[in-house]
Design brief:
The protein has 472 residues and is an all-alpha fold. It folds into 2 domains: 392 residues, MFS general substrate transporter like domains (Growth Hormone, Chain: A); 62 residues. It contains 18 helices and no strands. Helix 12 crosses helix 18 and helix 14 packs parallel to helix 16.
Length: 472
């Protein structure tokens, strides 16, 4: 009988679950990733139709915060909760927590699709339901990577992560297209899209997935959880509100409440780091940063997320509000055509992502991950040189190049980080990875939005600014 606090031996997937179990785990986690990413991108491209549907103008200063929270509330919640939920998965079972995530996400997708309120009450209902949907997403994100790592041998994990990456990018693309088709017809439909995926995935996960990782009986670090949540929420809320105009400025970085939230949150996170060195069973395993591959991979992932996190968000706004209307498309057509215009971003990752993951299993992750960041950085610099009224062929080539870089980077880096973790820490480690990436995504959106807003305020002709307003 194992002693309390001591790792129990994990039976292999092949011995206990059958030789095909790893493919069951891969297909189910891939479905979960596909569902969540479709949900994010379909909402992004449908925001104008959604706000017209609830009869609320998001460009009125008093309403702008609703626009931001409908989209970014989900990201904030997942960023805050994934570490805690990963740790809970290590203690109570990753599959149990993953199954719960599927069920919660599906329930609140249904509640979002039956929204009947309009105006501010309608916006608040959607925001609250999105926050709870984010709780389900956090359970999925925190445990899916650990489930894959448990199921696959080390020399196949890059390939598995690559296939998961395909699902993430494919979901983003499908969401853009589905949103472009459905939003003009009926905005409620954009939330119903997730429901069939969720119902099937919940039942399938319950019937087929089994925990096969190491379990450690442990206590939950309630003080650490509370400090981490308060600190990170404060920082991310400050970033979100920095996007709102303040005191005659187009952004809110001079708002004392924004600065207080950000620096106060950082102070709480510093206190959290100190507390985690003192408790016996910390939530945030700072000792994992002694593992070189884990630390380097997380820093690289953070930088990659800073680069890619806001790019789709801003490019969609640019295409819908400026470029497509400039080229003769009506505002009712722009959601669909904006999705079509982003196809090269999907194709580049689909071609390179799984190949890079499989090759990194044989030749190591460093070369692929480093090359990927360099390629995506070059694409970024070249995108900066495009004029406002750019030629689409150059735009398509550059976002394709950017996607190739991200495809080279993502799967090898993710596999290298997970391979470096002790089996009993995979849930917490995966949660830490997702926290860094989701937090960087929110920060990236804040930075992109600030840069673009300041640029538009100084350079954009008045008739194009009016186009953005008309796009909602």
């Amino acid at each position: 009988m194992p002693v309390a606090g001591q790792a129990q031996a994990a039976p292999s997937a092949a011995d206990e679950r059958g030789v095909h179990y790893k493919w069951i785990a891969l297909s189910n986690t891939t479905l979960g990733i596909l569902m969540v990413t479709i949900n994010q991108s379909i909402l992004l491209i449908s925001l104008p139709a959604l706000f017209r549907g609830i009869k609320l103008n998001p460009l009125v200063p008093s309403n702008t915060s609703y626009f931001l929270w409908v989209f970014m509330g989900f990201l904030l919640v997942t960023a805050v909760l994934v570490v805690s939920f990963g740790r809970i998965g290590d203690i109570y079972g990753r599959v149990k927590m993953y199954n719960l995530g599927f069920a919660v996400f599906t329930l609140f997708s249904i509640l979002l699709s039956v929204t009947w309120l309009t105006g501010v009450p309608g916006a608040l209902w959607i925001i609250i339901m999105r926050v709870f949907q984010g709780v389900g997403g956090a359970f999925l994100f925190a445990n899916s990577t650990a489930i894959l790592t448990d199921a696959f041998p080390q020399n196949e994990r890059g390939k598995a992560m690559g296939i998961n990456g395909i699902a993430a990018v494919s979901g983003s693309f499908l969401g853009l297209l589905l949103g472009g088709v459905l939003a003009p017809i009926e905005w409620h439909l954009v939330f119903l899209v997730s429901v069939p995926f969720g119902l099937f995935g919940t039942v399938w996960a319950y019937l087929k997935l089994r925990d096969n990782g190491i379990r450690i009986p442990a206590k939950i670090d309630w003080l650490g959880n509370a400090l981490f949540a308060i600190g990170l929420i404060s920082v991310l809320v400050g970033i979100v509100y920095s996007l709102l105009p303040y005191g005659g400025h187009p952004t809110g970085w001079s708002n004392p409440y924004v600065l207080t939230a950000i620096f106060g949150g950082i102070a709480v996170l510093i206190l959290f780091s100190w507390v985690e060195t003192k408790v016996e069973q910390p939530m945030f395993r700072l000792s994992l940063f002694k593992i070189r591959a884990f630390t380097a991979g997380n820093i690289a992932g953070l930088l990659g997320a800073l680069g890619r996190g806001g790019i789709q968000f801003m490019l969609i706004i640019w295409l819908q509000g400026i470029w497509l209307p400039q080229h003769g498309y009506s505002f009712s057509q722009t959601p669909l055509w904006a999705g079509i215009a982003m196809v090269p971003l999907t194709v580049g990752f689909l071609i390179v992502g799984p190949l890079a993951g499989a090759l990194s299993d044989r030749y190591g992750a460093r070369l692929f991950a480093t090359t990927g960041l360099i390629v995506s950085g070059i694409a970024f610099l070249l995108l900066e040189l495009l004029p406002i009224n750019f030629s689409y062929i150059w735009f398509a080539l550059l976002i394709f190049l950017f996607a190739v870089g991200m495809g080279l980077f993502f799967s090898p880096n993710q596999a290298a980080v997970m391979n470096s973790l002790p089996p009993d820490q995979r849930g917490a480690g995966a949660g830490m990875v997702n926290t860094f990436q989701n937090s960087a995504t929110v920060l990236s959106m804040g930075l992109f939005f600030t840069i673009v807003t300041l640029g538009l305020a100084s350079k954009l002709p008045s008739h194009l600014y009016k186009g953005l307003v008309n796009a909602g």
